[in-house]
Amino acid sequence: MSVLATDDFNRADAATLGSNWSRAFGSSADMGIFSNQVDVASANTFAMAYYNALAWPDDQYSQAKVIALASHSMMVICRASTATSTSWYGGGCGSSLFGNNNYRIARRISGGSVTSLASVATNVAANDVLKLECTGGTGPALALYRNGSSMVTFTDSGGVSSGQAGLQAQNNNGNVALWDDWEGGDFAAAGGTNRWLALLGVGS
Predict the structure, then answer these.
(1) Are 80 and 88 in contact (CB under 8 A)?
(2) Were 98 and a residue from 92, 94, 143, 200 both cysteine, which residue would form a disulfide, CB within 3.0 to 4.6 Å?
(3) Which has the closest alpha carbon to 167: 16, 68, 31?
(4) What is the pTM of this model?
């Protein structure tokens, strides 16, 4: 496993996450910076962003620290589409979206409804570090971790084959920090060129 990119969001408050991040296709708002952490720039809007400063491998992971629970949903994202269709895998929770804050793996394909693929009756909490792993082609193996421990897994029978790693949230109020300390990577052996570029801060 190799780290490809990191972001601690330690910079001035802003309505976007900066030039290395793009609003995902289908997102109705930007994710922004508030108090050196990630918030939703516009309240009551679905916000998703992906890290754009590298070409993501199909097998990837996305990880971040929960600062506070969003009122609607919050997920670390794998394989987010960049154009023409709203597709992604997410790992996290959604109190309004799914009726509770249970750990959950979800999917959206080509702008359809968000579908819950698997869940466990344990609630996400502040300070949890969530990590979603996505490996395989159009029928990938998905695994959601809390603080390094496996919470829920699912093997999709056919869905999203490629895309970008990132973050998602929807909250009733603006200026509320939700995420911090994001990391994304692949499943190559650690210590390669990408690992050294990440350590040097290239592309972060």
Answers:
(1) yes
(2) 94
(3) 31
(4) 0.91
Question: Does an H or E element contain 197, and which?
Answer: helix 193-199
Residue 182 pLDDT: 98
**Structural domain contains residue 204:** no
Contacts of 30 (CB under 8 A, 6+ apart): 15, 16, 17, 23, 41, 42, 47, 49
Burial class (CB in 10 A: 0-12, 13-18, 19+), 33: buried
From residue 203, how far is each of 39, 55, 126, 127 by CA, in Å? 22, 11, 28, 26
Residue 112's domain comprises: 2-199
3-state secondary structure of 42: coil
DSSP code, position 68: S
| Contact residues for 201 (Cβ-Cβ < 8 A; gap 6+) | none
DSSP class of 46:
-
Q: From CA 141, how far away is CA 138, in angstroms rounded?
A: 10
Structure tokens belonging to residue 42: 């516009």
Tens-digit pLDDT profile for residues 100-118: 999 999 999 988 889 999 9
- Count structural domains, the chain: 1
What strands lie across the sheet with 100-108, from one edge to the other?
21-23, 47-51, 164-170, 73-80, 88-94, 100-108, 115-123
CATH number at residue 39: 2.60.120.560
Asked whether residue 97 is assigned to any structural domain, the reply reads yes
The tokens for 197 are 């570029």
